[in-house]
UniProtKB/TrEMBL annotation:
Classification via Pfam families: GST_C, GST_N
Protein name: Probable glutathione S-transferase
E.C. designation(s): 2.5.1.18
Organism listed in the record: Rhododendron griersonianum
GO MF terms, alphabetically ordered: glutathione transferase activity
GO biological processes: glutathione metabolic process
Length: 221
């Protein structure tokens, strides 16, 4: 019996995009269900009653939630084109950096988007500090795991597109080749992979969405 895979996500979510990348890198067939989070579907609430959010992967009727957890599940279930190295320490470090991306980098970048003035200036410093850690970890490698895209690359992948859009919306420059040559080259390498390039959301539409998010938070303060 063939595996039945369904991915519940939104068109714009970088977390849902992680799952699409991983499934396609593994060569797996799946069905995408695009959610409107202002009117969450009964199925989404059924499959993720605890958090009530995307992404959710449903494998033969069994749901898995949270993007990094889903990536681990995909890696454990389908061994082809591995996303994690065999060495236990290297596997642990890949997980560490993926969690760093979510807990530190993403949070600080989002805070830049929704703040202004002195508060925003302080948050920008946090972003730059977090990017320095990423820069040092790359150490001249093509990808975090070496020659091919892996777990950490997928976790960080949103920066290759979304970070530039946030720069455009806020007018704040985070990455250039002089300050962050390793990250700049990594972005080029990452975007050059067909599976990655083929799945970016429409840029113009995403710019409008990010502008709307910023305006909503700024006007509410």
């Amino acid at each position: 019996m063939a595996d039945e895979l369904k991915v519940f996500r939104t068109w714009s979510s970088p977390f849902g995009l992680r799952i699409i990348w991983a499934l396609q890198l593994k060569g797996l067939d799946y069905e995408t269900i695009l959610e409107d989070l202002s009117q969450k579907s009964p199925l989404l609430l059924q499959y993720n009653p605890t958090y009530k959010k995307i992404p959710v992967l449903v494998h033969n009727g069994k749901p898995i939630s949270e993007s990094l957890v889903i990536l681990e599940y995909i890696e454990d279930t389908w061994k082809q084109n591995p996303l994690l190295p065999e060495d236990p320490h290297e596997r642990a470090m890949a997980r560490f950096w993926a969690k760093f991306v979510d807990d530190k980098l993403f949070e600080s970048v989002f805070d830049v988007l929704v703040t202004g003035g002195k508060e925003q200036e302080e948050v920008v410093l946090r972003v730059m500090e977090n990017l320095k850690y990423i820069e040092e970890e790359l150490k001249g490698k093509k990808f975090f795991g070496g020659a091919t895209i892996g777990f950490t690359d997928i976790a960080l992948g949103w920066t290759a597109n979304l970070l530039g859009i946030i720069e455009e919306v806020t007018g704040i420059k985070f990455i250039d080749a002089e300050k962050f040559p390793q990250i700049s080259q990594w972005i080029l390498n990452f975007c050059d992979v067909p599976v990655i390039e083929a799945n970016w959301p429409p840029r113009d539409k995403l710019v409008i969405k990010i502008q709307t998010i910023r305006e909503k938070y700024i006007t509410s303060k």
